[in-house]
Amino acid sequence: MSEQTLFKVTIDNITVEVPAGTTILQAARKIGGEVAPPAMCFYSKLKGSGGKCRTCLVEVAKGSEKDPRPMPKLVASCRTTVMDGMEVKNITSEKVVEARAGVVEFLLLNHPLDCPICDQAGECHLQDLSFEHGKSGTRYEFQRRTFKKHDLGKNIQLHMTRCILCYRCVFTADQLTNKREHGILDRGDHAEIATHIEKSLDNEFIGNVIDVCPVGALTDKTFRFKNRVWFLKPMDAHRDCPTCSGRVTLWNRGDEVFRVTARKDEWGEIEDTPDGQPGWICNTCRFDKKETADWVIEGPREINRHSVIAQGHYSGKIGTTKPNETFTAVNDGRTPQLLMDIHDESEVNQPSIHLSQNKGASHGDTFNNNKA
Amino acid sequence: MAYIFNDTQMAEFKRLVSRYPEGKQKSALLPVLHLAQESFDGWLPTEALDYVASLLQIEPIEVYEVATFYSMYNLKPVGKYVFEVCQTGPCMISGSDTIIDYIKQVLSIQPGETTKDGLFTLKLVECLGACGYAPMMQVGKIFREHLTKEKVDAIIAEYRQTANNN
Amino acid sequence: MGVKLLLEKANVPGIRSFEVYRREGGYRSVEKALKEMNPESIVEEVKKSGLRGRGGAGFPTGMKWSFIAKPEGVPRHLVCNADESEPGTFKDRYLMEFLPHLLLEGLIVSSFALGSSDTYIYIRGEYAWIPDILEEAIEEAKAAGFLGKNILGTGFDCNIHVQRGAGAYICGEETALIESLEGKRGNPRIKPPFPAIQGLWMRPTVVNNVETLAAIVPIINMGGDEYAKIGVGRSTGTKLISACGNINKPGVYEIDMTISVEEFIYSDEYCGGMKGGKQLKACIPGGSSVPILPANLLLKTAKGETRYMNYESLSDGGFATGSMLGSGGFIVLDEDQCIVKNTLTLARFYRHESCGQCSPCREGTGWMEKILYKIEHGKGSISDIDLLWDIQRKIEGNTICPLGDAAAWPVAAAIRHFRDEFEWHVNNPELSQTSNFGLQHYADPIHVPA
Fold first, then answer.
1. CATH top-level class for A118-220?
2. Has the ipTM of the complex gone over 0.90?
3. Where do the structural domains in chain C lie, given as residue ranges?
């Protein structure tokens, strides 16, 4: 094969070189931080995904070196490939910021906002999206749309009311299993994920729909209401699995394994295995191996996500951005007055201790030991 | 009833599939669902959808997805004659509201309901492409246009007559 | 009498049959194209004709044809978009019902130009009786050697298949139509790739409207240059207008795009004036999705010039004071019509027809309908009007396909030009349930800046 052609693309004034055929979103992810547009439906490991949620819309201010005309409309960065010399505006475009706030509002319009009882809370992409790009409050005053709860078998709970119709789980079933049994029924604002006739999904790889779901629409029944994700310690582990790679993240509290997921990268997507294949895991690893003894523990897992489970790091990659100046910034330069340091009272969210380094359930002794 | 095509229906099924290239038989799904609906009492129960899936050698979910997307497939039983009255802009400004109210009154049913004798179902639909001949409704394969109260009376009488004769 | 290129023979008794159609000079363009021309020269003639897509978007047809990819050994397809569903539009139905052979003739020539040996007509499911008419015509054409194998001994094979849709406006969008033709839900595809590269079954595909394909016949018969002489500016040839609403003679008319809007509404040759001698209040000139205009801005542009029935004149002033020719669905509203209610029915239509794939359209269309319902039923507030404006702005341009724009524009234009009427509904909640805002100032001459 001939040498790969590289295209120069400038996103929010930062230039990066990427191979021809790369999408704007992937190029922006290469830069990282806030330059990367949020993506609710696109999933790089799922062919055909993307283009639907419209959260990743960006402005193309210059089409390419050859044809510098700007694109007339905002484009979905996940499905638009870069051209050489292209200039893209993401957070530097007012149009984008406004359109994105609009999309967030649309996505939340009929969302139940039941985060306090939702297992996805803390690692929910819709929460992150709303926090970063949405507005507080809603202008919607009508009754929200609800759906009947569907049971997809003994391990997967479908909570359709929370669904944002990203189609990721449909692509997952299409591409990972040999027989898709659930899909999108009806259309428009009544469209829903369902099996039509109550059916349990039991393909050996179907559990991956839980990992790809950006919201709490598909959750792990074996973990249902057991714990909040931010109280758990993620540990990388593996086992010799005859079906899948067996490379997982265990979510522990003490010695107890609360749930098993695939390993996810900083964009919340399944990580590749060392041989370059997506690290999907099988149902046996996910649902049935809930003993520490089932696994070889590799060590604590760094959660590179700008989410609650990454402990309050709301912007940028961990270690690259310090969030502690935010308060001063929004407070017109005034420094906050410390009334009470919560960390004097509780070890929860102690910034100097990574949760995964806590041994056992978090209690006062652990805290004192760590402090000493 | 058994949801299986008879010989004539099967011949039509084969004709529909033959329009598409080898291996692209799924393309015939929409016409085949029409055929099934016409063949099986005017609506499509799950058994009929599963039968269509097996004929076209596709997964049942692919048929469910399509059958629920398009508004012309009835997934619940309907009356022998379905009055699908258009209520979109051009029909509305030409007086479709009056016609709808009149049908509701004459047949004593609300939209979505079927008369007790099982003869008529009233459905409110969106633009059917007969805006110049409004108000109008579709009954089966044909359009009934330039509706007036008198015309509605005559149409109902006509279908009652046909049903009695059969 | 204006020039008639498509409907000239529509009233000839028996024109639906091959025999009469042929006797009246039909299928000459097929003989000319297949025997005297080649695909490239046909595309050239279509380019010269200046023909613009008649489905609504008005994209130059010749250019669209020249985009089709021609990879070695991959079949190409021509698909006729007969999924006419835009409220106010019923011209294609008329063509197919009364002149089926004209469409077939255009399809054969176009299939030859594009190299399509299996051409599909995708017709909306509700036009349930028309496939029978078309299939009968196809059989006749086949028997006469104009379709099937080795047409007129030229070695060109072509079959035309008719497929019925099943009730989905969205399938008029070309990629949704292709999905539907593949037996799937009518979800528009994310572009690129465009159909010209990867369309039906991932093969290069061109999708054209019925009227566009019928117009190929006169273009081949008279030559692209001659065709381009008809009409004005970039609005060449003739256009079918389907007129409906509160007029004396609703129906399908062929115009040569040089007549004024006023003449079209009031002359006896066309709409025959307002029904019952009522006053003209407003008009949606190009199918329900294009901006509605009050009477004063419809008949004259903001500059005070006469408005004509063509692409350029109808869009004069942009969306601020103009509209679009669109699909030619001409909806006329008289003084007794309520703009809020009309907008509500259109909002309901677009909510009903949204495929639900992308969030602004799925959620936004329903939201707009609910607010309009509130205002129409005397429960709205002034801030609701501003909210509506903001919602439509956040939908427009941000969706996968043009349905989002189609849903946003009618709401935007109604508020832009008829805000008084919306406010009247809000301020007179009881009165608005029993009476109507009426004509008010909407037909008053507009002030033209010097």
1. alpha beta
2. yes
3. 18-229, 235-332, 339-443
